[in-house]
Specification:
By secondary structure, this protein is of the alpha/beta class. It has 15 helices and ten strands. β9 and β10 form a beta hairpin. α8 runs antiparallel to α9, α8 packs across α15 and α9 packs parallel to α13. The structure holds guanosine-5'-diphosphate and magnesium ion.
Length: 479
């Protein structure tokens, strides 16, 4: 343990939520969180490393085995300047105290203490013993009230008892804590030990810098997705001799539609996986009724996300779109060279996208073949729906705590979700000028142009994501 790295030993009863707290604070969703009590028998270090540098180290400890024996020993040796160190020195070979030694070793080495309490339980004598012996170590110490249920009855008593033995007492829910709550906790740690202040300041700075970088990476992912999706096309070249009937044509068009939608779904999934990686999530479950589980092209998604009518009118005006069809056809004809345009039909893809098709099929005939092409997306609502889905996905990735992975959310008496008004998309909150900027950006991409609105669009998305990290928790993270 390097002397200049703030180190915190996480202590508490089996099942108090220690491992969950460590998982959340270190954003490590691979930490063993077990429903059986007492699975941890060693102290495990979970350093937070940013840019190759360890900025803080958390130690997940087993619960106390013999707290009253330790307290007695402490009380009998009150003249010792460092009780934790003296105890470890005296008992490190004693198998009776193996868990206690594993737990006190980091403290002996200088770690501060975070005691995790399940505030839904009544205070017992054993708890008082542990609080007192931790007080006697004289290490900087904070208590975390991690209420594992909706039982608030014992919370005031805990507050009272803990505040007598700890420098700071905070409520912190390992399953619900957001980025801003994690930062607040670190800020509170600063105050428990003045000596750590500058180092914790650096730790917080490193966290915030890293967070800002992730937001930036997420914006890049979203912008990249929009660019790819809005210029996406699929083609099929079929020999004229294979197109005997209208059914043959319809089949080709149908296959094209399927390929087009699948291609777009894949682009979205790839982008989602990138976002998940930016925020270091490996495991999470979406509720079955999540909008993010629903098909991108489903009615539910089309209705819940995207712009309302008024905004659509604004967006359409900004993008210079009337119907768009005439313009697109002439562009397509030009880019495809000498082909003879034999037909342009609106692909009958989506009712939910405001009644308008997603994209249209072009068919050109040259030298015994017909070339069918679908794309790019002409539907004006679709980019906003896609954007909304990505922002929702980000909301979840940003606000979903890493300690929640193994949670049995259906268990009785588990922490209830905070009651919040259900907000859905983000695009219906855009200011008119933002809407115009994004629409112009989308229109440029559709035309295959580099857009001078890209930077401003990045700015807008960055602002939305930053606002999300500042909010306590966004109900949209549950979607
Ligand atoms: N609902 C809910 N469950 C939690 C919370 N923290 C921990 N748990 C659950 O409580 C159990 C024990 O948690 P764990 O972190 O392994 O406790 P440890 O034994 O102290 O390390 C696990 O099933 C966790 O999912 C919480 O904040 N909310
Ligand atoms: Mg554990």
């Amino acid at each position: 343990m390097a002397a200049d790295i703030p180190t915190l030993a996480i202590m508490g009863h089996p099942n108090a939520g220690k491992s969950s707290v460590v998982a959340t604070l270190t954003e490590n969703d691979r930490i063993e969180i077990d429903k059986r009590a007492g699975t941890t028998t060693r102290s495990d270090h979970y350093p937070v490393i940013i840019d190759g540098k360890t900025i803080i180290d958390f130690v997940d400890t087993p619960g106390f085995q013999n707290p009253s024996a330790i307290l007695e020993w402490f009380q009998a040796h009150e003249r010792e300047t460092d009780l934790a160190r003296a105890f470890v020195k005296a008992f490190h070979h004693d198998p009776l105290f193996s868990h206690d030694i594993a737990l006190l070793e980091p403290v002996a080495a200088g770690a501060g203490i975070i005691l995790v309490i399940d505030g839904s339980k009544r205070i017992k004598e054993k708890d008082r013993t542990e609080m007192e012996l931790l007080r006697l170590t004289a290490r900087p110490r904070m208590a975390i009230l991690n209420n594992l249920s909706n039982n608030q009855k014992y919370m005031p008593a805990w507050q009272d008892a803990l505040s007598k033995a700890f420098n700071s007492v905070r409520e912190f829910n390992a399953h619900r804590a957001t980025y801003s709550e994690r930062i607040k906790l670190l800020n509170a740690l600063k105050s428990i030990n003045q000596r750590w202040e500058p180092r914790l300041e650096e730790t917080i700075e490193a966290f915030s810098y890293d967070w800002e970088r992730r937001i930036d990476a997420s914006v890049t992912t979203i912008i990249g997705l929009l660019k790819e999706a809005l210029s996406f096309r699929v083609n099929r070249v079929v020999r004229v001799s294979d197109l005997q009937s209208d059914t043959d044509r319809a089949d080709v068009q149908q296959a094209l539609q399927v390929a087009f939608q699948d291609g777009l779904r894949k682009l979205e999934t790839d982008a989602q996986n990138q976002i998940r990686a930016h925020f270091r999530h490996h495991v999470w479950n979406l509720p079955p009724d999540s909008l993010l589980q629903k098909d991108l092209f489903s009615d539910d998604v089309g209705k819940a996300l995207g712009l309302n009518r008024l905004q659509m009118a604004l967006a359409g005006a900004a993008a210079g779109a009337t119907t768009g069809v005439g313009l697109d056809l002439s562009l397509a004809g030009g880019s495809l060279g000498a082909g003879l345009l034999v037909g342009a039909t609106a692909g009958s893809v989506l009712g939910a996208l405001g009644g308008a098709a997603l994209a249209k099929v072009d068919i050109q005939r040259t030298l015994g073949v017909e070339r069918f092409s679908l794309g790019p997306i002409s539907n004006q609502r679709f980019p906003f729906i896609l954007l909304d889905r990505m922002l929702l996905y980000c909301a979840r990735a940003m606000n979903w705590s890493h300690g929640r992975k193994a949670a049995d959310d259906s268990a009785r008496n588990r922490v209830p979700d905070r009651a919040l008004k259900k907000k859905r998309g983000f695009s219906d909150e855009l200011a008119p000028n933002q809407l115009r900027t994004l629409s112009k950006f989308f229109a440029d991409i559709r035309k295959g142009k580099d857009s001078k609105f890209e930077d401003d669009s990045r700015q807008i998305l960055g602002e939305i994501l930053r606002a999300l990290s500042a909010s306590e928790i966004d109900s949209r993270a549950e979607l």
